[in-house]
Every structure is written in C-alpha cells, then in structure tokens.
Amino acid sequence: MNETLVTVVGNVATTPVFRELASGPVSRFRLAVTSRYYDAVQKVWADGHTNFFTVWARRSLGTNVQASLTIGEPVVVQGRLKVRDEERGGQHWTSADIDATTVGHDLSRGTAAFRRVLKANPALTDPASAREAEPEPVG
Amino acid sequence: MNETLVTVVGNVATTPVFRELASGPVSRFRLAVTSRYYDAVQKVWADGHTNFFTVWARRSLGTNVQASLTIGEPVVVQGRLKVRDEERGGQHWTSADIDATTVGHDLSRGTAAFRRVLKANPALTDPASAREAEPEPVG
Amino acid sequence: MNETLVTVVGNVATTPVFRELASGPVSRFRLAVTSRYYDAVQKVWADGHTNFFTVWARRSLGTNVQASLTIGEPVVVQGRLKVRDEERGGQHWTSADIDATTVGHDLSRGTAAFRRVLKANPALTDPASAREAEPEPVG
Amino acid sequence: MNETLVTVVGNVATTPVFRELASGPVSRFRLAVTSRYYDAVQKVWADGHTNFFTVWARRSLGTNVQASLTIGEPVVVQGRLKVRDEERGGQHWTSADIDATTVGHDLSRGTAAFRRVLKANPALTDPASAREAEPEPVG
C-alpha cells in the first residue's frame, strides 16, 4: 500500500549484471529515461532531462531479462520506485531504484520475437515472494 | 492535459488487425488483463476480475506490433485510456480503448529477441503527431 | 497483481450516494474526466474527449468523501479500474468503475481546509479488507 | 514524451515554502511516502520503505497549495518525476523532485472543505505553460 508505482520508457544504459542470490536470480541494469520536448522556437523536437534508474529484475523476470536485454536497447519498465537517502562517510548519497514487476522491449523502436518460458513462476505461487518483496541491498 | 494514462499487463486476446490509414499504419488487438489475488483461505493465488481493452498502435508502433505480436502472448501496454459511451439503435454501448504509446512483451513470462527498426519515427519529428509539450524550466 | 491502476483528474458529475453495507460504508459518484488539447489552428486550448467513471469509495474514504464532496468540484482520484462487460436481455453493456484508494480536491482549482478524522482506518489493520476487495454490485 | 509520471500518497514533511518567481508563484515542500506491507508472521500491517520527494507546485497550484497545506497533512500528489544527479565539490549528490500537476488532501484520512478560486488559470490559456498536446483522431 502507498507504493510508488512508475512506468518508464528508456534505454538500457549498462549491460545487465546477473547474480544468483539466496532469494533467487536477480538481474540489474541502469536505465536512461530521456524526456522529449518540442522546441517551439527552433520548431524541432529536442532532448529534455534524463532520469537514471537502477532496475532490479528478480526470479523469472531476472533470468529472462538477462537472456533478452542488451545495452542500448529501448525498453518499457514497470515497477516500484525506491528513492534511497544514505549517509556514507559524512556524505549524503541518494539512489533511485525500480523493483521491476515487468520489463519489455519498446516496440515503437523495433520488432521482437518472443519465446515463452514454461517453468513455473514462483512469483505466482509463493505469496511471501510476491508483491512486497524488499530488494536486496545493492552489492 | 487530464489524460487518463494507464499501464496494463495482460495477454493478446485477438490476432492484431493491420490497416493503412491516411494518418499512417495502425494495428489493433484485444487485450485481456486479469488481476491476481491471494486467497487467504485456500492459500493459493487465484484469478480475479478480467479487464478487456481494445489497444490501438499507430505509425511505427503499429507496424512493429503487427510484425511482433501473436495471439496469446503476454504484453505490457502503456497508453491513454478512452472510455466511450454511445447510443446505437436506442442501446447504450461502451468500449474501453487504449491509444498505446508503447507495447512490449512481458519478460516475466519468457525471453525476446529485439531487432531495431532504423527508419525515422515520424512521431519524433512531426509535432502534429506528438503527444506532449515540455514543462517550463524550473525557476 | 496485474491490477489496472489509474489516476484521473476530473469533476464530480453526480451527487455522491452513500450506503451502509455489511462490508462497511461506501460512497459512489460519477466522475467526468475531460482531456484538454491545444488547437494549433485556432491557437486556443479546447476540450477533447471526456471519460466517465463510476468511483467507489469505501470505509473511511467513503465516509469522508460523503462529508467532503459536492457535485461540480474538481478532484483527483487514484484507484483500480474495472471495466465490466455484461449481457442483459441480449444487450451488450459495459461500465468503467474505479475502486478508489484515495480521493482529494484538485488544488490547482481552489483551496481546501482539511480536518483529520482520528478513528482507526480498518483498511490499515484488516488485511482481508485491503487491496483486493471486490466492489459490491452496483445497486 | 517519455516523461516519468508518478502518483504518490504521503504526508507533508516540511512547511511549504512560497516564492514569487518571474515565471509565477511556486510553492515547494518535502513529501514522505511510506509503503505499508502485511507482516504475515506478526499478522499486522507495518511500515516499509519511505520515499522522500521534493514537490514543486507552480502558478495557481502553487498559490493554493500554500494556502491549503500544513505540515503533517496527508496528501495525494501527481506529477513528473525528476531524478537529478549532480557533482558538487567532488561529491555525488542526487535528489528526487516531483513537478506537480495536481495536489489534493487524502480523504481516506479526513474531510476537506473546498473553495473554488475563480481567477483564470494561466495553465489553461497559455500554451507555453501547458503540458500536453492532443492525440490525433482515431482513424
């Protein structure tokens, strides 16, 4: 409840890194989300501000993200936003993570061939792992 | 302004139908979005209500959707919701359409191989077809 | 999971109707959400399509909505969208409901004086009533 | 285009600060958004992670926010998320801002009395200040 759900459309900015954790597989990557605006003076579209997020994909989604995404590809990501403020060595430090519920290639930029993975998705059967899972600390 | 943006995760329920219109290519399909809930008595996840939407994909997105999606595939769709009420022959009739801004395969259910389409995207260069203006700079 | 969350900004189109159900208090009203667009030819902003929703507010939210909202007031509503298709007497009939998680006056249109209600919110303590509650049938 | 829209429900964490800028009035405040989760072991709802945002309300919304919000009040905020990374004195520094499109009191926590402000809203008449263009008609 009161979670901050976001849907963002952007580009994979770092090669996804895969790890097998006690809680299951996880893949993470940086995502660059650049807004576009129409410059009424120049009469052209131009890039606006870029938001960067660290996306965490877990369990089946993590395995499939690792098998599917390459740096530079355009994607749509939906998930829970976590903004973290930390003090480290007296320094204020913040990160913006998205704990992804889904990731897909952005078909406005190209085509994709899909192959269903048939093994059971633990997220659908294990209530303890679904919906409220806390992301592991960033390693 | 005041548009109803939605992001939905569901399954392609009808084979996408493609047409070339004066305004460009368009592909449309029905999408079934079934909520899942945890049945605390049976201690299992179960299907809840299913929302059906007619998804409209236009221009590059329409062409790529037509080339990429097959009935039954799991997808994530972001777009503007339009609920339409009509009177036809004295009958009240309503539909729920989504004018898609992006569509992608849901990687929590499988893997996807992406191929970028290199031709220019009219949506990025033609202001008449674009969706959003830029907010003013923060003072 | 896979719920269709929406946030809409519009106007209260019917006087909220309050009922005490076995599951608790509920207030419902019609909401009109009119998109605005810039007419580049006339160089003015104009009304676009209007979405109508039936908003359901339950428990504390229902009680407070009933005490706070008047027809015509501008509001922001967040909740779960339910599109219903029905056959009645051979007729296809559809409605678009929002099971609200929150409702508030839209402060871009005016000011509001808030008074906190101190009694416990069952939604925060009773898991069975939270998050996945099915709306009662429309009476 | 490609903006990161969010809707968050939380509490006003700092007294709103008002300024008159060349671009118009602006009010800003910190917002605390605490997720809630059901602890299946303790069988109680508990607080999860808290996201902090700096909310910016501009023009009419800024004026009305300043006149309406008090520290501690529960609100719903919709707007564009901006995550900013900066280097200052060799330090990495990030903030998470929301450029609000609307703000309202959360009626699940209390009641509110609304008073419409009748003066023209520049956002509705000045195209330079507006956020979104209209999609093309459906073909």
Structure at a glance:
The structure is a homotetramer of 139-residue chains. Chain A has 139 residues and is mainly beta.
Strand content of chain A: over 45%
Mean pLDDT of chain A: 85
| Low-pLDDT stretches of chain A | 124-139
Number of domains of chain A: 1
* Outline type of chain A: globular
The most extensive interface between chains reads:
A-B, 48 and 48 residues
Distinctive features:
2 helices, mainly beta, five-stranded mixed β-barrel, about 140 residues, homotetramer
Layout of helices and strands:
The structure is a homotetramer of 139-residue chains.
Chain A: E1 5-12, E2 17-21, E3 24-39, E4 44-58, H1 59-68, E5 74-88, E6 91-105, E7 110-116, H2 122-125
Question: If you had to describe this structure to a student in words, what would you say it looks like?
Answer:
4 copies of one chain form a homotetramer. Chain A is built from 2 helices and 7 strands, in the order E-E-E-E-H-E-E-E-H. Chain A has 139 residues and is mainly beta. Chain A has one domain (5-111): OB fold (Dihydrolipoamide Acetyltransferase, E2P) (Beta Barrel), CATH 2.40.50.140. A 5-stranded mixed β-barrel of chain A has the order 1-3-4-6-5. The first copy, chain A, starts with a strand and ends in a 14-residue tail after the last helix. Chains in contact: A-B, A-C, A-D, B-C, B-D, C-D. Chains B and C meet through strand 1, strand 3, strand 4, strand 5 and strand 6 of B and strand 1, strand 3, strand 4, strand 5 and strand 6 of C.
